Amino acid sequence: MERYRQDNGSVLMKEILLNKEVKIISSDRTGGVSGGAYKSLNLGLHVGDNPLNVEKNREIFASYFGANAKELCFMEQIHGSFVAAAKKDDTPKADALITQDKSLILCVMSADCAPVILYDSDKKAVAAIHAGRKGAFLDIITAAILSMKRDFKSETENMQAFIGPSIKSCCYEIEGEVLKEAMTRFSSALQEREGRWFLDLQKIIIAQLIANGVTNITADNTCTCCDKNYFSYRRDGICGRNVTGVKIL
Ligand SMILES: [Zn+2]
């Protein structure tokens, strides 16, 4: 199901096929043209990198799909729970995109937040979801599922989910108000180690998927904060963005 592809000895990326009908690619930070904190495959235009380099990097990422950058659909991600129908040449303020259009590649930018892909193998529809801590607390997973049910008549029994590279409970320490809310609402996703509290974001997402009836779930086991091949906001602050993209074949 999952394989690693190495191009030109430099690009190490993860490519996953669901049912041979959907291609999902999660980039890491290697194989691009950006420098400094953005070295090298930064795919975020909003993080202070040279936009010309980001455009080149987006062409490189699109080429992994055998496509060009015009086919990539990005969002202006705002850590909310708004779901948008993907359109060409459109960058909606949203944290999830849905489509049945085979010509589009839905993209989620992340640097620790969890990218989540949903695929309905019956209605041939996909969702690409940006589920960070805020999005998970707002249950953007359910919002995306409801949008697929409304727009495509999707049924969750036909859905598969993929959770891409993201920060894991080894590194995701929380405190203050966030910890208080997590203790109230998501206590089973908390781990205590030596008086410090760590959040298991994937556990919340998986519980939300299962609560909706999605049980066919594949989760990447990379921690973006531990693995220096990935951009990590928690580790580095100023940094680039990884992308998980999905295309219906
Ligand atoms: Zn870690």
Number of helices: 6
Structural class: alpha+beta
CATH class: Alpha Beta
- Number of self-contained structural domains: 1
- Tell me the name of the CATH homologous superfamily: CNF1/YfiH-like putative cysteine hydrolases
Name the helicity range: 10-25%
Largest sheet: 6 strands, mixed
Strand order of the largest sheet: 1-2-3-15-7-4
Average pLDDT over all residues? 94
Order of helices and strands: EEEHEEEEEEHHEEHEEHEHE
Number of strands: 15
Query: What sort of overall outline do the alpha carbons produce when their principal axes are compared?
Result: globular
Small ligands present = zinc ion
What proportion of the residues form beta strands (DSSP E)? 25-35%
CATH fold node name: CNF1/YfiH-like putative cysteine hydrolases
Measured between the Cα atoms of the first and last residue, the distance is 15 Å
What is the second-level CATH architecture? Answer: 4-Layer Sandwich
- What oligomeric state do these chains adopt? single chain
Which stretches are poorly predicted, pLDDT < 50 over at least 5 residues? Answer: 1-12
